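Lab notebook: predicted structure, single chain.

Context: the supervisor wants predicted structures on file for every construct in the current expression panel, including those that have not yet been purified. This is the next one on the list. No modifications to the sequence; it matches the entry in the shared construct table.
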Amino acid sequence: MEDIKNQFSEIKSIWETVYKNAFGNPQLWKPHLPNTSLEMLNEAVDTVSIWLERSKAPNGLSPGYHLAKSLAAIYLPSLLSAVQQLGVGNYSHFQNFVGYLINTLATIHTMAVYAPKNNQESINADFSAELSQTLALLNTAQKELSEKLEILEKSQTLAEEINEFHEVIKSTEQEVGAYKSKVVEYEEQTNSSLKNANEILEKIQEVHQNITQIIDKKQKEFELRLKDQEENYEGLLKEHDEEYEKLLTNSNGLYNELKEMKGELSRLQEKCRDQEKIIDS
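Prediction complete. Output recorded below exactly as produced.
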């Protein structure tokens, strides 16, 4: 029995820390504990602790008591594991904690039933006081339940609005699907047009290459012809220079001959004038 008390004492110690931390952060544990309050669980833990401290083993053979005690020893490790998870902030284990706590309460109640009569009377008296406190907590829980019912009604209204919004989303998804089909169709058409454009571009590039080759060929031919013409021009220019030199030489010869003829003519005229003078005299 001492082992059970010590183990539950450890559970209660951890629970006090959990209760203190969770009390100021309801948004963290409320989703995992929708129909129960921390106060009710704290009261249940205190009740188990009180019953364990005041419960005594009956004299003689009492199979019911010892069987309940064995079940309590089985449930407590699971209850300890659950409260340890709560201690590190894993509030999703609240449901497991509540389940194991209820099972532990049931086994402690059975142990109380099979306890000695004088001890049973003491436990019943304490239980009556505990029951009064529990009823007071139930009144508080009733108020919380009313608030939760109001929240539930608002949640139902919100759910209807969400369903309407879901229908709008569904309709929008259908429209998006239709647009998507059109986009796929346009994409296929675009791909086809792009393919045709690429083919045309390849042909243009091929024509451009051919034109470039023709231009290069004609340019080379023109350069050859130009080179030939330059060579012919140089030859003609050379011949012209030679002819000019010859003409110039000939012109100089004629000029000298004409000069000599002019001198000769002047001398003849002088002789003629001399003869005329002789005749006249």
